[in-house]
Amino acid sequence: MYETAYARPRTLEEAVELLQSDEDAKCLAGGMTYVPTLKQRLAMPSLLVDLSRLLSRDIAVADGFLTIGAGARHVDVQRSQIVRETLPALAELAGLIGDPMVRNRGTIGGSLSNNDPAADYPSAALALDAQITTTKQQYAAADFLSGMFETLLDDDEIVTHVRFKIPVCAAYSKFASKASGYAVAGAFVARFDDDVRVAITGAGPCVFRADQLEEALKGDFNVWALKGKTIEPEGLLSDMHADAEYRAALAVEMTKRAVHQITGA
Amino acid sequence: MNKISLTVNGNKVEASVETRVLLSQLLREELGLTGTHVGCDTSQCGACTVHLDGEAVKSCSVLAAACDGAKVETIESLSDHPLQEAMVRHQGLQCGFCTPGVVMSGLDMIRRHGSSLTRERIAEELEGNICRCTGYRGMVDAIYEVSQDV
Prior knowledge:
- The complex is a heterodimer of chains A (265) and B (150).
- With 265 residues, chain A is of the alpha+beta class.
- Chain A is built from 11 helices and 14 strands.
- In chain A, strand 13 (195-201) and strand 14 form a beta hairpin.
- The relative contact order of chain A is 0.12.
- Chain B has a 5-stranded mixed β-sheet, with helices on both faces.
- In chain B, helix 2 packs across helix 5.
- The mean pLDDT of chain B is 96.
- The chains are: A alpha+beta (265), B alpha+beta (150).
- The interface between A and B is medium-sized, with 26 and 26 residues.
């Protein structure tokens, strides 16, 4: 790891000022992705702005929305009584991230800001039409999660809250890499009164919605409705774990499993 | 350099560390607490597990600078703890390299779940601790036994 400066601001304003004062400054939250990245010398920031004790960890429900502070650790979401009651699929998803020690440190804000193509939270954010609030403005998750490890965040902008629309029911299913726990393909299925949204992570360079599967499920919310439905492999990831065709097939299968979790048949 | 002050196993520690110094390095190289092992150094194996403000973390993925004001407990904070004794009795270790991490993870589980801990839950939560010689059965038995006495 290259040596760098370190600061732990006490307020968000101070954090933003630090980011503005140094163009190579970077935010550090739980550090479960960024510290290993630094250790591999894949990044060389001149200043680390530690947000781990600054960002809100609050979780609250109001008017059909679940709002989670960006500093909430995965374990907070996994164990939260509020999340378990209002959006159990999100608690389940959080419990599938990494392992207990990783979940004790990693944060939802960090995960969404990093937008790893194989991370779990982006699928929930997209399927649940999340609003992502930053120190500057609000974004729809569909805009915010803009590409592989890319978001609309400016260098001096920090995610503060994530607000999920609470569905009638939802489920998340992932096929995890045995070694890393990351999704080779994962599907978050959310059913609303007048809509069904299916978000696929792990398979493509960025989380995306599976339109064909959504249409089929809008007609009949049942695993059989997905028979013969596919996801176009073009543009999906191919690596040593799985090629694009396999990932496309796996994403459909994960969607079926998620639907099955909801309907039980 | 970052000036930090933290409590390690009940003792006040003051140190001056580069930002790149990991908590595992501070413990082992500065403080001589070599009971915390570094297996993979890529946050996979869990041999470096310690408690940071009461929660199990992988000390190879935490910057020492970020631990200013924190309370850290390592395997050295225990002596003849019932879990250590149970690990021996149930043959929960062979080469012993992963053991400090397994014990710290096990204590974390016992503290959170107490006697409601099940063998299935222990197996699930040991996901972040990799043992490459003896297998997990003895560890699960040891953690389970101690949890039932809480």
